[in-house]
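Many introductory courses stop at the sequence. We go one step further.
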Amino acid sequence: MTDSAPISIEQGLRTDHRDVAAALFWEAFKGKLMPVMKPETKALAFLVSAIDPSHAISAVSGRGELLGIVGFKTTEGGFVGGGLREMTKVYGPVGGFWRGLLLSVLERPVEAGTLLMDGIFVSASARGQGVGTMLLDAVRLKAIDFGLARIRLDVIDSNPRARALYERQGFVALETSETGLFRHVFGFRSSTRMNCQL
C-alpha cells in the first residue's frame, strides 16, 4: 500500500466492502475452514451472506480501500453469523447440515462482562503498518463503550505471530484447549483463550 493519507477506523462495514471483507476473512482463516467449507466459491458465497456489518470495525485507507477488520460477538450476533438456513442455501440440505454440525465445534459462548472478538484480519498489502494494533485499540474502545470489563479472544497454536501481537497489546493467556480428533478436520492442535482486562 502506497497511500500516504491516514488510515481511518470506521464502525461497521461499508456496503461496497462486503465482498472484499468476505475474501479477506477467507484468506485469513481458510487454513482451518477449508476442509469443512470447500469449495472456495461456496465458502465465499456463504460468507458474503453471513457477514453482519453491525459487528465489525473496519480500517480503511485514504483511497477508500478496506485494509482490515476486527469482528466482535455479542448476545445479538457476531461478525460472521448465519445458521443452518444460510448454510443449506449455499451447500444444499445434506452438505449444509454436516458442515453446520462441524463448524458448531468452533463456537464460543458470549460471557457476561466480556466482549468476544470474532476474528481480526489485515490485507496483505497493509501488514506491518500498525493496522492490527489500530483495530485492537478500536475494539478496546468498543468494549469500554459497551460498559464491559474485558475482551476475550482465542488464538490457535499454528498462529504464533498473532499471539505475539495480542500479548504485546496486553492480552494474557488463560487456558489452552486441545482439539483432539478435530485436529484432523481443522488443522490445528490447540486453541488458547486470552483475556485483556480494561
